[in-house]
């Protein structure tokens, strides 16, 4: 039976969920910025309140007990609900003065945000965005868990719990070394890519799978032996003659002002594109603000990058 009549505190539930996500007290304490003894004390108090053990420590790490597994998802939902309650209170009390956590993919954020954030800040002087990069799958999971408030991710996203506002469609450019047989052509026939060795990013990047689908459609070969850790390393591998590549239009616009060692072209009659959208939890209290934010982003992108991407209507 529980030894404490008081309900669990929000802090205790947050500690419980954080430990469960890391399966490790030390790493959880580092993320929460508390000492490990203080964390242990709070979990022991929570277990005493509930009258059940939540964790089992072993050589393999910190494991959830069966009882802990049963309670974990509900604890996550309670934490998310409390955060949304707090955000809603801030919206009512202060307007849009909160700090919002924005997630972006590493193949987009560095080449998009510098072009749009200054103009966005001029429209919302008190708006603060805490930007973190991550793969789209991680960003969507972060929305569910409350780690992010909004994210810009590739579309489509077909989930009932996620609201989507399309932003723009970005072309993918075909890039070859300067001494390649296709260099110098502004447009390349799809048939000319058959058998070409195409480089891309590592498999955990969403961009990897986009390029994989392109290769399958064109009869090109995806090079699995040489994969880039970033768009910059991918570009350098093309320069060194390890293969050809597809690079996002915003990256080309931002980083390749004088590409003497590379040649950029289009695929004739078969434009290759990727679409991006702003997403958030469908239940978010600030969802009306997020829709307005998406409209502002489309307007800014059209003004600043309309010659590079196609803004969605």
Automatic annotation (TrEMBL):
One term of GO molecular function: DNA binding
Keyword check for Disulfide bond: no
Family matches, as SUPFAM superfamilies? Periplasmic binding protein-like II, Winged helix' DNA-binding domain
Q: Where is the HTH lysR-type domain?
A: 8-65
PROSITE patterns referenced in this protein's UniProt entry, alphabetically: HTH_LYSR
Q: Name one Pfam family in it.
A: HTH_1
What InterPro entries does the record point to? LysR_HTH_N (IPR000847), LysR_subst-bd (IPR005119), WH-like_DNA-bd_sf (IPR036388), WH_DNA-bd_sf (IPR036390)
Instruction: Give Gene Ontology CC terms.
Output: protein-DNA complex
Task: List UniProt keywords, sorted A-Z.
Answer: Activator, DNA-binding, Transcription, Transcription regulation
Q: Which family does it belong to?
A: Belongs to the LysR transcriptional regulatory family.
Q: Would you tell me the protein name for this molecule?
A: Hydrogen peroxide-inducible genes activator
């Amino acid at each position: 039976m529980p030894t404490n009549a008081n309900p669990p505190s929000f802090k205790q539930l947050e500690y419980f969920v954080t430990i469960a996500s890391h399966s490790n007290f030390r790493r959880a304490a580092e993320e929460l910025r508390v000492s490990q003894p203080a964390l242990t004390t709070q979990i022991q108090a929570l277990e005493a309140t509930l009258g059940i053990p939540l964790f089992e420590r072993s050589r393999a790490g910190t494991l959830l007990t069966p009882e802990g597994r049963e309670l974990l998802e509900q604890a996550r939902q309670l934490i998310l609900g409390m955060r949304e309650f707090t955000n809603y209170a801030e919206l009512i009390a202060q307007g849009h003065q909160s700090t919002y956590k924005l997630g972006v993919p590493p193949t987009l954020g560095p080449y998009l945000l510098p072009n749009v954030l200054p103009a966005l800040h001029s429209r919302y002087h008190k708006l603060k965005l805490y930007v973190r990069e991550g793969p789209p799958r991680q960003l969507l999971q972060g929305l569910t868990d409350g780690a992010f408030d909004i994210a810009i991710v590739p579309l489509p996203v077909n989930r009932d719990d996620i609201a989507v506002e399309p932003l723009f469609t970005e072309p993918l450019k075909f890039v070859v070394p300067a001494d390649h047989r296709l260099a110098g052509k502004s447009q390349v026939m799809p048939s000319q890519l058959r058998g070409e060795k195409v480089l891309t990013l590592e498999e955990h990047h969403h961009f990897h799978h986009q390029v994989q689908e392109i290769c399958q459609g064109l009869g090109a070969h995806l090079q699995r032996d040489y994969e880039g850790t970033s768009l910059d390393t991918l570009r350098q591998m093309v320069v060194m003659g390890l293969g050809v590549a597809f690079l996002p239009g915003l990256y080309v616009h931002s980083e390749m002002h004088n590409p003497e060692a590379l040649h950029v072209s289009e695929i004739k009659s078969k434009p290759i594109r990727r679409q991006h959208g702003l997403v958030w939890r469908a239940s978010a209290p600030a969802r009306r603000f997020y829709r307005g934010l998406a409209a502002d982003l489309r307007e800014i992108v059209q003004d600043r990058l309309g010659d590079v991407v196609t803004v969605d209507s």
